[in-house]
Amino acid sequence: MNRALIVDCGQGDCILIQKNNHQTLIDCGEYYKKPWSKTKRILSWYIQKGRDKNLDCIITHFHSDHYGGFVKLLREYNFGSVNLYLHNPPGFPVNNSPKFVELTEEIEQISDRVEVIDALPLDIDGLLVKSYYPDPAIPVPLSRGYNDTSIVFSVTFGEAIMVLTGDSCEVLNGPLRKAIKKDTKGKFVILKVSHHGSITGTKRTLVKELKPNISFISVGNPNRYDRRYPGSMPHMPTVGLLGKPGNHRNKNSSVYYMTEPRSSRHYFYVLDFMKTKMRLSIKNSSNNRLVDQVIYEYITCIS
Ligand SMILES: [Zn+2]
For ligand 1, a single-atom ion, which residues have Cβ within 5 Å? Predict the structure, then answer.
Protein backbone atom coordinates (compact mmCIF):
# COMPACT_ATOMS: atom_id res chain seq x y z
CA MET A 1 0.00 0.00 0.00
CA ASN A 2 1.55 3.27 -1.18
CA ARG A 3 -0.93 6.06 -1.16
CA ALA A 4 -1.71 9.61 -0.15
CA LEU A 5 -5.17 10.67 0.91
CA ILE A 6 -5.86 14.37 0.52
CA VAL A 7 -8.78 15.35 2.70
CA ASP A 8 -11.11 18.25 2.16
CA CYS A 9 -11.31 19.55 5.72
CA GLY A 10 -12.74 22.97 4.83
CA GLN A 11 -10.41 25.81 5.83
CA GLY A 12 -7.27 23.87 6.75
CA ASP A 13 -4.95 21.08 5.70
CA CYS A 14 -5.04 17.34 6.31
CA ILE A 15 -3.12 14.73 4.31
CA LEU A 16 -2.65 11.07 5.22
CA ILE A 17 0.27 9.15 3.72
CA GLN A 18 0.30 5.36 3.96
CA LYS A 19 3.37 3.43 2.96
CA ASN A 20 3.92 -0.25 3.74
CA ASN A 21 1.55 -0.19 6.75
CA HIS A 22 3.22 2.93 8.07
CA GLN A 23 0.90 5.94 8.44
CA THR A 24 1.83 9.60 8.57
CA LEU A 25 -0.61 12.43 9.01
CA ILE A 26 0.36 15.90 7.84
CA ASP A 27 -1.79 18.39 9.72
CA CYS A 28 -5.21 17.57 11.15
CA GLY A 29 -7.62 20.29 10.00
CA GLU A 30 -9.68 22.51 12.32
CA TYR A 31 -11.25 21.66 15.67
CA TYR A 32 -14.65 23.33 15.10
CA LYS A 33 -17.49 20.85 15.08
CA LYS A 34 -18.42 21.10 11.40
CA PRO A 35 -14.99 20.88 9.72
CA TRP A 36 -13.81 18.25 12.21
CA SER A 37 -16.82 16.02 11.54
CA LYS A 38 -15.97 16.24 7.84
CA THR A 39 -12.29 15.44 8.42
CA LYS A 40 -13.13 12.62 10.80
CA ARG A 41 -15.63 11.04 8.46
CA ILE A 42 -13.06 10.81 5.68
CA LEU A 43 -10.15 9.76 7.90
CA SER A 44 -12.30 7.04 9.50
CA TRP A 45 -12.46 5.22 6.19
CA TYR A 46 -8.71 5.02 5.89
CA ILE A 47 -6.75 5.56 9.08
CA GLN A 48 -5.73 2.47 11.02
CA LYS A 49 -6.35 2.87 14.71
CA GLY A 50 -6.17 0.65 17.78
CA ARG A 51 -3.74 -0.15 20.54
CA ASP A 52 -1.33 -1.87 18.17
CA LYS A 53 -1.34 0.94 15.57
CA ASN A 54 1.15 3.76 15.53
CA LEU A 55 0.88 7.18 13.94
CA ASP A 56 3.46 9.71 12.88
CA CYS A 57 1.93 13.17 12.83
CA ILE A 58 3.51 16.35 11.52
CA ILE A 59 1.99 19.65 12.54
CA THR A 60 3.46 22.05 10.03
CA HIS A 61 2.88 25.18 12.16
CA PHE A 62 0.89 26.51 15.07
CA HIS A 63 -2.30 27.73 13.45
CA SER A 64 -5.50 25.97 14.44
CA ASP A 65 -6.55 25.08 10.87
CA HIS A 66 -3.47 22.79 10.93
CA TYR A 67 -3.16 21.59 14.54
CA GLY A 68 -6.79 21.94 15.75
CA GLY A 69 -7.94 18.43 14.86
CA PHE A 70 -5.04 16.79 16.68
CA VAL A 71 -6.69 16.99 20.11
CA LYS A 72 -9.87 15.48 18.65
CA LEU A 73 -7.84 12.77 17.00
CA LEU A 74 -6.21 11.83 20.30
CA ARG A 75 -9.55 11.80 22.12
CA GLU A 76 -11.51 9.89 19.55
CA TYR A 77 -8.99 7.44 18.12
CA ASN A 78 -7.09 4.95 20.17
CA PHE A 79 -3.56 4.72 18.81
CA GLY A 80 -0.81 2.58 20.31
CA SER A 81 1.66 5.45 20.14
CA VAL A 82 2.02 8.76 18.36
CA ASN A 83 5.18 10.51 17.25
CA LEU A 84 4.36 14.19 16.99
CA TYR A 85 6.76 16.26 14.89
CA LEU A 86 6.80 20.00 15.57
CA HIS A 87 9.18 22.90 15.42
CA ASN A 88 8.96 26.09 17.45
CA PRO A 89 11.75 28.38 16.21
CA PRO A 90 13.92 29.72 19.03
CA GLY A 91 12.99 33.28 19.93
CA PHE A 92 9.63 33.05 18.18
CA PRO A 93 6.69 34.22 20.34
CA VAL A 94 5.00 31.35 22.16
CA ASN A 95 1.45 30.65 21.01
CA ASN A 96 -0.78 31.36 24.01
CA SER A 97 -4.16 31.02 22.31
CA PRO A 98 -6.65 28.95 24.38
CA LYS A 99 -6.75 26.20 21.75
CA PHE A 100 -3.00 25.84 21.67
CA VAL A 101 -2.85 25.71 25.46
CA GLU A 102 -5.49 22.97 25.34
CA LEU A 103 -3.37 21.07 22.83
CA THR A 104 -0.27 21.15 25.02
CA GLU A 105 -2.27 20.18 28.13
CA GLU A 106 -3.88 17.29 26.30
CA ILE A 107 -0.51 16.04 25.10
CA GLU A 108 0.78 16.25 28.67
CA GLN A 109 -2.11 14.15 29.96
CA ILE A 110 -1.43 11.32 27.60
CA SER A 111 2.30 11.84 27.39
CA ASP A 112 2.94 8.13 27.83
CA ARG A 113 1.54 7.59 24.33
CA VAL A 114 2.74 10.78 22.58
CA GLU A 115 6.37 11.52 21.92
CA VAL A 116 7.05 15.10 20.82
CA ILE A 117 9.97 15.27 18.38
CA ASP A 118 11.67 18.41 17.13
CA ALA A 119 11.46 18.48 13.33
CA LEU A 120 14.92 19.96 12.87
CA PRO A 121 15.39 18.34 10.46
CA LEU A 122 12.30 16.29 9.76
CA ASP A 123 13.22 12.62 9.51
CA ILE A 124 10.62 9.86 9.55
CA ASP A 125 11.39 6.16 9.64
CA GLY A 126 9.87 4.33 6.69
CA LEU A 127 9.30 7.40 4.50
CA LEU A 128 11.65 8.88 1.92
CA VAL A 129 11.57 12.43 3.24
CA LYS A 130 13.66 15.43 2.23
CA SER A 131 13.46 18.26 4.73
CA TYR A 132 13.79 21.85 3.48
CA TYR A 133 12.61 23.82 6.48
CA PRO A 134 13.29 24.50 9.34
CA ASP A 135 16.90 25.23 8.50
CA PRO A 136 19.08 27.07 11.02
CA ALA A 137 20.84 28.81 8.09
CA ILE A 138 17.56 30.46 7.03
CA PRO A 139 16.17 32.90 9.59
CA VAL A 140 12.41 32.98 10.17
CA PRO A 141 10.86 36.19 8.81
CA LEU A 142 8.48 37.60 11.39
CA SER A 143 6.25 39.39 8.88
CA ARG A 144 4.01 36.39 8.17
CA GLY A 145 3.73 35.20 11.75
CA TYR A 146 3.56 31.45 12.14
CA ASN A 147 3.02 30.82 8.42
CA ASP A 148 6.69 31.16 7.66
CA THR A 149 7.59 28.73 10.46
CA SER A 150 5.88 25.97 8.44
CA ILE A 151 7.75 22.70 8.07
CA VAL A 152 8.41 22.27 4.33
CA PHE A 153 9.44 18.87 2.98
CA SER A 154 8.97 16.38 0.18
CA VAL A 155 8.07 12.70 0.14
CA THR A 156 9.21 10.54 -2.77
CA PHE A 157 7.30 7.54 -4.12
CA GLY A 158 9.26 6.05 -7.03
CA GLU A 159 9.14 8.64 -9.82
CA ALA A 160 6.55 10.79 -8.06
CA ILE A 161 7.43 13.44 -5.51
CA MET A 162 4.99 15.26 -3.22
CA VAL A 163 5.98 18.74 -2.10
CA LEU A 164 4.33 19.65 1.23
CA THR A 165 4.44 23.34 1.99
CA GLY A 166 2.16 24.12 4.96
CA ASP A 167 1.37 27.85 4.82
CA SER A 168 4.92 28.90 3.96
CA CYS A 169 5.18 32.25 2.14
CA GLU A 170 8.43 34.24 1.88
CA VAL A 171 10.66 31.32 2.84
CA LEU A 172 9.12 29.01 0.23
CA ASN A 173 9.30 31.51 -2.61
CA GLY A 174 12.80 32.67 -1.71
CA PRO A 175 15.51 30.53 -0.12
CA LEU A 176 13.81 27.12 -0.59
CA ARG A 177 12.87 27.45 -4.24
CA LYS A 178 16.15 26.38 -5.81
CA ALA A 179 16.60 23.30 -3.61
CA ILE A 180 13.06 22.11 -4.30
CA LYS A 181 13.47 22.73 -8.02
CA LYS A 182 16.64 20.63 -8.10
CA ASP A 183 15.07 17.70 -6.24
CA THR A 184 11.88 17.65 -8.31
CA LYS A 185 13.57 17.83 -11.72
CA GLY A 186 12.41 15.04 -14.04
CA LYS A 187 9.90 13.73 -11.48
CA PHE A 188 6.12 13.61 -11.50
CA VAL A 189 5.47 16.58 -9.19
CA ILE A 190 2.50 16.77 -6.82
CA LEU A 191 2.27 20.14 -5.11
CA LYS A 192 0.29 20.94 -1.97
CA VAL A 193 -0.33 24.59 -2.78
CA SER A 194 0.87 26.76 0.07
CA HIS A 195 -1.33 28.89 2.33
CA HIS A 196 -4.65 27.74 0.86
CA GLY A 197 -3.90 29.28 -2.52
CA SER A 198 -3.45 32.77 -1.14
CA ILE A 199 -1.41 35.05 -3.41
CA THR A 200 1.15 35.29 -0.60
CA GLY A 201 1.67 31.53 -0.64
CA THR A 202 2.64 30.08 -4.02
CA LYS A 203 4.08 32.59 -6.44
CA ARG A 204 4.54 32.65 -10.20
CA THR A 205 8.27 31.89 -10.18
CA LEU A 206 7.78 28.83 -8.02
CA VAL A 207 4.99 27.48 -10.24
CA LYS A 208 7.07 28.14 -13.38
CA GLU A 209 10.04 26.32 -11.94
CA LEU A 210 8.26 23.31 -10.44
CA LYS A 211 5.70 22.81 -13.24
CA PRO A 212 3.53 20.67 -10.97
CA ASN A 213 1.67 17.83 -12.65
CA ILE A 214 -0.98 17.83 -9.93
CA SER A 215 -1.74 20.65 -7.49
CA PHE A 216 -4.06 20.62 -4.52
CA ILE A 217 -5.63 23.70 -2.97
CA SER A 218 -7.40 23.29 0.34
CA VAL A 219 -9.44 26.37 1.22
CA GLY A 220 -12.68 27.16 3.01
CA ASN A 221 -15.35 29.27 1.39
CA PRO A 222 -16.19 31.60 2.95
CA ASN A 223 -13.13 32.00 5.13
CA ARG A 224 -12.08 34.68 7.54
CA TYR A 225 -8.44 34.91 6.54
CA ASP A 226 -8.07 36.88 3.35
CA ARG A 227 -10.42 39.60 2.19
CA ARG A 228 -8.15 41.43 -0.22
CA TYR A 229 -9.93 40.25 -3.34
CA PRO A 230 -13.49 41.53 -3.01
CA GLY A 231 -16.00 39.37 -4.77
CA SER A 232 -13.55 36.56 -5.34
CA MET A 233 -11.97 33.73 -3.45
CA PRO A 234 -8.52 34.45 -2.06
CA HIS A 235 -7.06 31.43 -3.86
CA MET A 236 -8.16 32.49 -7.33
CA PRO A 237 -4.95 34.23 -8.41
CA THR A 238 -2.99 31.06 -7.66
CA VAL A 239 -5.44 28.88 -9.55
CA GLY A 240 -4.81 31.18 -12.52
CA LEU A 241 -1.05 30.63 -12.21
CA LEU A 242 -1.42 26.87 -12.07
CA GLY A 243 -3.34 26.76 -15.32
CA LYS A 244 -6.52 25.30 -16.69
CA PRO A 245 -6.98 21.58 -16.25
CA GLY A 246 -5.68 19.82 -19.36
CA ASN A 247 -4.56 23.08 -20.95
CA HIS A 248 -1.26 24.08 -19.44
CA ARG A 249 2.30 24.39 -20.62
CA ASN A 250 2.79 21.21 -18.69
CA LYS A 251 0.26 19.07 -20.54
CA ASN A 252 -0.63 16.72 -17.70
CA SER A 253 -1.29 19.46 -15.17
CA SER A 254 -4.40 19.28 -13.04
CA VAL A 255 -5.54 21.47 -10.20
CA TYR A 256 -7.80 20.03 -7.52
CA TYR A 257 -9.80 22.48 -5.55
CA MET A 258 -10.59 20.92 -2.20
CA THR A 259 -13.78 22.50 -1.02
CA GLU A 260 -17.18 23.25 -2.43
CA PRO A 261 -19.14 26.10 -0.87
CA ARG A 262 -22.20 25.17 1.16
CA SER A 263 -22.13 21.56 0.13
CA SER A 264 -22.45 18.52 2.29
CA ARG A 265 -20.36 16.51 -0.13
CA HIS A 266 -17.24 14.92 1.24
CA TYR A 267 -14.43 15.45 -1.21
CA PHE A 268 -11.16 13.69 -0.90
CA TYR A 269 -8.58 12.42 -3.34
CA VAL A 270 -6.66 9.21 -3.18
CA LEU A 271 -3.34 9.04 -4.98
CA ASP A 272 -2.23 5.46 -5.45
CA PHE A 273 1.50 5.26 -6.10
CA MET A 274 2.45 2.15 -8.02
CA LYS A 275 5.93 1.30 -9.25
CA THR A 276 6.10 3.88 -12.01
CA LYS A 277 4.54 7.25 -12.57
CA MET A 278 2.52 5.80 -15.41
CA ARG A 279 0.52 3.80 -12.90
CA LEU A 280 -0.22 6.65 -10.56
CA SER A 281 -3.96 6.96 -10.37
CA ILE A 282 -6.21 9.56 -8.84
CA LYS A 283 -9.71 8.91 -7.53
CA ASN A 284 -12.11 11.08 -5.65
CA SER A 285 -15.25 10.58 -3.67
CA SER A 286 -17.46 12.42 -6.09
CA ASN A 287 -17.39 13.33 -9.73
CA ASN A 288 -14.01 14.35 -11.16
CA ARG A 289 -15.58 16.08 -14.12
CA LEU A 290 -17.69 18.23 -11.82
CA VAL A 291 -14.60 19.30 -9.85
CA ASP A 292 -12.72 20.15 -13.05
CA GLN A 293 -15.72 22.17 -14.19
CA VAL A 294 -15.73 24.14 -10.92
CA ILE A 295 -12.03 24.93 -11.34
CA TYR A 296 -12.52 25.87 -14.98
CA GLU A 297 -15.29 28.31 -14.08
CA TYR A 298 -13.13 29.99 -11.45
CA ILE A 299 -10.25 30.36 -13.89
CA THR A 300 -12.50 31.73 -16.60
CA CYS A 301 -13.86 34.40 -14.31
CA ILE A 302 -10.43 35.67 -13.32
CA SER A 303 -8.74 35.50 -16.73
ZN1 LIG B 1 -3.60 27.44 7.13
Answer: 65, 167
